[in-house]
Design goal:
16% strand; 11 strands; Rossmann fold; 300 residues; 3-stranded parallel β-sheet; globular; 10 helices; alpha/beta; binds NADP nicotinamide-adenine-dinucleotide phosphate; single chain; 6-stranded parallel β-sheet; 2 domains
Length: 300
């Protein structure tokens, strides 16, 4: 039987609708418009496309959206000064530094210089630490794992007691916070990585299998427990089959067609986790704006 398709676009649209309502309510109650500042350095076309999409979505949500574009030659000090001024700016509730940064810059230092209350990417150690200690209401949660959890909740509800989850990948950006969020929801969690032995057998035990590796179609049908929920985070650009003109398309870390025959529910790529990331960025920005006025923010 074919798996149920988990529609990330639909879930993201629902989150955005809630963000819009929360934005209006905040304006009515406190006269505050959420402000999102995005810093982009250099002219990488993919990064500019992402930043453009974030800016448009922010405006659509009713935010004030400010983009700071710096040349690839920008220095560490120049970016530090910009982050410092945005940290102080009361109209700015969220600061996002688009990664990757040019290699002469210390990206980690810049990420950690964003004030935790404005760290809408959830990458500051204070926010990562809150997720790791199970304090999910006090900080800002990294957007992609937060979005992936919305999709998991859509299938299993918010209590994952008795379910086993395997996350392939242990990055600070995704794998670690995702494992922590699943654990906080009472799943029994295994975090796998490149040194894991017999990965397919471990994955076959999972009621919830999350792949965040960056290897096209790595997860095959014999990795999936019948009826499992499969969340594909990977984004890989590969040549289109049988296409001689050099055309490419996006695929995930999961071999979608064959795994759909085994799984109970599965995310597509594109249209699964991807749209959730940007929606949760908007959610984090409105949450930060509420907290800046001492008002309890909505949950997403
Ligand atoms: P990353 O920092 O490169 O981490 C990849 C992880 O995969 C590492 O923990 C690595 O293990 C593990 N790994 C590599 N090869 C493996 C193998 N053969 N078997 C098992 N594990 C293996 O990547 P990331 O930032 O977490 O992103 C992962 C993927 O998600 C990428 O495709 C990225 O584009 C995508 N992504 C998508 C979104 C979205 O919005 N949908 C957001 C973020 C990331 P080691 O730690 O042992 O090296």
């Amino acid at each position: 039987m074919a798996a149920r398709l988990i529609d990330g676009r639909q879930s993201a649209a629902a989150v955005i609708q809630s963000v819009k309502s929360a934005t209006e309510a905040l304006r009515d109650r406190a006269g505050v418009t959420p402000g999102l500042a995005v810093i982009i350095v250099g002219d990488d076309p993919a990064s500019h496309a992402y930043v453009g999409a974030k800016g448009r979505m922010a405006k659509d949500c009713g935010f004030s959206s400010i983009q700071h574009s710096l040349p690839a030659t920008a220095t560490q000090d120049e970016i530090a000064a910009l982050v410092a001024s945005l940290n102080e700016d009361e109209a700015v509730h969220g600061i996002l530094v688009q990664l990757p940064l040019p290699s002469h810059l210390d990206a980690e230092k810049i990420t950690q210089s964003v004030r935790p209350e404005k760290d809408v990417d959830g990458l500051h150690v204070v926010n990562a630490g809150k997720v790791a200690t199970g304090d999910l209401d006090g900080g800002l949660i990294s957007c992609t794992p937060a979005g992936a959890m919305v999709l998991v909740r859509g299938v299993h509800g918010s209590d994952l007691s008795g379910l086993s989850a395997v996350v392939i990948g242990r990055s600070n950006l995704f794998g670690k916070p995702m494992s922590a969020l699943l654990l906080a929801a009472n799943a029994t969690v295994t975090t796998a990585h490149s040194r894991t032995r017999d990965l397919p057998a471990i994955c076959r035990e999972a009621d919830i299998l999350v792949a965040a590796v960056g290897r096209a179609r790595m997860v095959g049908r014999d990795w999936v427990k019948p009826g499992a929920t499969v969340i594909d985070v990977g984004i890989n650009r590969v040549p289109m089959e049988g296409n001689a003109e050099g055309k490419t398309h996006l695929v995930g870390d999961v071999a979608f067609e064959e795994c759909s025959e085994i799984a109970g529910a599965i995310t597509p790529v594109p249209g699964g986790v991807g749209p959730m990331t940007i929606a949760m960025l908007m959610a984090n920005t409105v949450i930060a704006a509420y907290r800046s006025k001492g008002i309890e923010p909505p949950r997403f």
